[in-house]
């Protein structure tokens, strides 16, 4: 992976990703599918949202790509037996498809990739001319308050020596910068806008460990001595959640993206 190399806890993600599924429904609705298209699910995760996409493609096909081997394995299990879909383990920045797709769908992925210029070049290369990109990811301001709390906890003496050099790949872009990058990559009919999504995950701890703090915990596990790493990871999660309060309220800001390959 060209971002921070991170494998995901795919089983827990699949269980806690209700918000992502809700967002994905809205993205699929915006695609206005005819039902016979060939679609790339860019960053398919555990395959939960791929299944939603397939509901709109009774005569179509999906290529579902993700860079996390654990996610790919889970998606393959979830979608096994459905001949309309192929799951491939690939970095979106280095996509290699045998055939160009008619459309690209993506939910909650692009902000995990720092280099949006390269990302949009790669996606443009995967699309047939006239093909649509319809996506949503974290945008400018996304869960700012929660990320600030995590940084505060990470700077406490107990964690600081292990966390000081953590560099997550997040890129929460503005609509304006994204429109420019899409145009430069060869897209037209571009529309990008932000949308607030207040979210209260039902399993706050599972959601925090798997979705919100996964880069922090992965870093801690790699940098702290193995004898204390798990204990520190657990304590770190507890401390961030205590700061965030109960119930956990997350102020998500989603960046919606629509564009056509020129
Ligand atoms: C929050 S999950 C979203 C998964 C799925 N789209 C959903 O909505 O449930 C983010 C996914 O992006 C994938 N991802 C991050 N960077 C990637 C990259 N460079 N190439 C491919 N997948 C990537 C991760 O492996 C992870 O599965």
Summarize the structure.
This protein is of the alpha/beta class. It has helices spanning 10-16, 18-31, 48-55, 69-79, 116-126, 144-154, 157-163, 175-184, 204-212, 214-223, 226-244, and strands spanning 38-42, 61-66, 85-89, 101-107, 127-138, 187-199, 250-261.
Provide structural commentary.
The structure is a single chain. With 262 residues, this protein is α/β, with parallel strands linked by helices. It has a domain at 10-140 and 170-201 and 249-261: Rossmann fold (3-Layer(aba) Sandwich). 45% of the residues lie in helices and 23% in strands. It is built from eleven helices and seven strands. The protein has helices at residues 10-16, 18-31, 48-55, 69-79, 116-126, 144-154, 157-163, 175-184, 204-212, 214-223, 226-244; strands spanning 38-42, 61-66, 85-89, 101-107, 127-138, 187-199, 250-261. The chain has a seven-stranded mixed beta sheet with strand order 3-2-1-4-5-7-6, sandwiched between helices. Helix 10 (214-223) runs antiparallel to helix 11 (226-244). It is globular. The mean pLDDT is 96. The structure holds S-adenosylmethionine. S-adenosylmethionine binds next to helix 2 and helix 3.
